[in-house]
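Trying the structure run again after the queue cleared.
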Amino acid sequence: MSVDEITLGDGLRTSPQGFGAMALTTVYGGTDPDSALATLEHAVDAGVTFVDTANVYGNGTNEELIGRLLTRRPGQVQVATKFGVAGNIRVGERAARGDAPYVRECAEESLRRLGTDVIDLYYLHRVDTRVAIEETVGAMAELVAEGKVRHLGLSEVTADELRRAHAVHPITAVQSEWSIWSRDVERHVVPAAAELGVGFVPYSPLGRGFLAGSVGTEIPEGDMRRTFPRFDAGNLDANQVVVETVRRVASTLGATPAQVALAWVHAQAGRWGLPVVPIPGTRRAERVDENLGALGVRLDAGAMTALDEVSAVVVGGRSADPTWVSAGREDVTSA
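Done. Tokens:
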């Protein structure tokens, strides 16, 4: 399958839809490395050139998996990885760290695990509020000057943090949760990115599987979704109206719920005037093809209205710790 490329900020060209490799770890249950690699290779065959990982995914094993992909597909993949989260994200134990020595330490470790000399896009995974973001991004910029990193990104930053970082070094992309049921970034972060010419990479564009209709009424033990308030039993029940609306729109358009949810995210590029490259993840090759099918889905005005309206009735926050995501810190700042 051939897909047109899209340009994020600072000239980074990628496929219009990427692949979120966190799905290929144990955060949603057990996984097999060889099957995971086969899914990644299928994604590349299907036209995906942009793969997203992080040093904390699988405690480094996800980067090692991507390293195997790079060995088998040299020159065919742009890799984004992240640093700045310490702890076990699978069970909700985490802390942000962004001091300059840690930036370099993490980059060297990621380069080794990926088996590459340069990282295409290097993100600060979470802002360490104890460290000036200028220090963190300054250390990241040194990696660019040394040829170890090509582009810089930030994850879950506020608009103010983005502007301060961008003044130190051009920021290529902001990665934050953005979907039909997670729209808080539209208040401040998305407008700031558009203003600065920064691309946007929405993670969990399918609501961690919920918007695709693949989440039941009970989350199993060992599944990371149990740590998110909107997946609590009562909230999950109340939020069924969201996925029912997505299903209804999908039926009208002859698409799948996942394709509708992704088409809505792609539509935000035109709405906000900035490049948008969502990174859905999956363990199954057929889901890769289904997700890429969203690039051909066009939502009419009626569909957009229905999806926009239902986003306002979502129950439960997207993080147990509101300050872990940008909207929580913006709310604290403006209070």
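Residues 9-334 form a domain with the TIM Barrel fold (CATH 3.20.20.100). Worth checking whether this holds up in the mutant runs.
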